[in-house]
Amino acid sequence: MPHHSELVEIPGTEIELSRYSLGTAPLSGLFKKVSEQESDHVVQCALNSGMNYFDTAPLYGSGVGETRLG
């Protein structure tokens, strides 16, 4: 699958991030129950599109969001 996400460089660094990020709160089941399989599918689609910027926080499902990213 082709990479569609535009990468932008953080000024003063050589770090390139996708312009958009994937928030992991929904993947953690914070709003409604989400299976690990569904979560894995969403993350894989994001990676396949070239996304490399993910928003996580320890409070997203008590760490489930971070755990599901690996």
Automatic annotation (TrEMBL):
Ranges where the NADP-dependent oxidoreductase domain occurs: 22-68
Any one GO CC term of the record: cytosol
Residue ranges of the TM segments: none
GO MF entries: oxidoreductase activity
Protein name in UniProt: Unannotated protein
Originating species: freshwater metagenome
